[in-house]
């Protein structure tokens, strides 16, 4: 009795859509900051904040992915142990005490 493995692979189209969306939003925000009628130090502060948010987002995405992969590996190990126990179990074997 095996449980189905759920592997969700992203399609190439979805990957490109996500990459293009990220690029467009980053460029639009950068242009908005560049053309903002504010002092240069204020624009610099907003640009630095934007870079911080972007790097934090990548770090969070990596941590979520790593945790998901770790959970998947632990699940596979537990399933392998259970399969081994079930394969070795003989319900008709009588233990002599």
Automatic annotation (TrEMBL):
UniProt KW keywords: Membrane, Transmembrane, Transmembrane helix
Species of provenance: Actinomadura alba
Claim: Transmembrane is one of the keywords in the record: yes
Every YiaAB two helix domain range: 14-66
Transmembrane segments: 12-35, 41-61
Membrane as UniProt keyword: yes
Protein name: YiaAB two helix domain-containing protein
Pfam family, one: YiaAB
């Amino acid at each position: 009795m095996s449980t189905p493995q759920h592997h969700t692979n992203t399609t190439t189209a979805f990957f490109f859509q996500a990459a293009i969306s990220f690029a467009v939003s980053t460029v639009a925000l950068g242009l908005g900051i560049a053309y903002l009628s504010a002092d240069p130090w204020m624009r610099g502060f907003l640009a630095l904040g934007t870079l911080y948010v972007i790097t934090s987002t990548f770090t969070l995405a990596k941590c979520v992915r790593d945790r998901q992969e770790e959970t998947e590996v632990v699940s596979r190990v537990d399933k392998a142990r259970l399969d081994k126990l079930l394969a070795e179990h003989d319900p008709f074997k009588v233990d002599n005490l």
